[in-house]
Amino acid sequence: MSGHKKVAILISGGGSNMMTLVNSMTGDHPARPCLVLSNNADAGGLKKAAEAGVATAVVDHRPFKGDRQAFEAELVKPILDSGADIVCLAGFMRVLTSGFVSRFQGQMLNIHPSLLPKYTGLHTHARALEAGDAEHGCSVHEVTAVLDDGPLLGQARLPVLTGDTPDTLAARVLEQEHILYPAVLHRYAADDRTPVLLG
Known about the structure:
By secondary structure, the chain is an alpha/beta fold. The chain is 35% helix and 23% strand. It is built from 6 helices and 8 strands. It has helices at 16-24, 44-51, 68-82, 98-103, 124-130, 166-189, and strands at 5-11, 31-38, 56-58, 86-89, 108-112, 135-142, 152-159, 196-198. An 8-stranded mixed sheet has the order 3-2-1-4-5-6-7-8, sandwiched between helices. Strand 7, helix 6 (166-189) and strand 8 form a beta-alpha-beta unit. The longest helix is centred in the C-terminal third of the chain and has 24 residues, at 166-189. It starts with a strand and ends with a strand.
């Protein structure tokens, strides 16, 4: 592990992006996964991570009853214990406070299913279709205190096809996410902030 940066990955669900990241961190990759952390004990990605030999942890948000700072005070513990140098959000469905984000400023990445700065937040595929956009895609950015707003580190673009629905568009964007996110992490872990541009 010497010389490799350690990556903690936060998930809430099946963990498809998480697994593409974990599977990419082999050989001469400058990073290695050290933790997969979820706010949901039933997240399918936890089993996948464990089977891949990655340490897992759960901090359920529900007992904190909306007290985000108390939740985050617990969430941060396994990350710090893991010695993570980089934190990747991969389908982590909790909005993080500025206090949490500032602790990992310059170390935290997120993938978002739109061509930022377009369509921050939810329902990005439906919104792109409603707007009549000719192209859509996904973005990887550094996480800042403003939702989906940090410096862009990569984008993948694809054409919107006649007859696309939010579901068909989402499926094609997810394929691009699985290419883009590992490519950005590879550069980021090597201290290269040059954006990765695909499509």
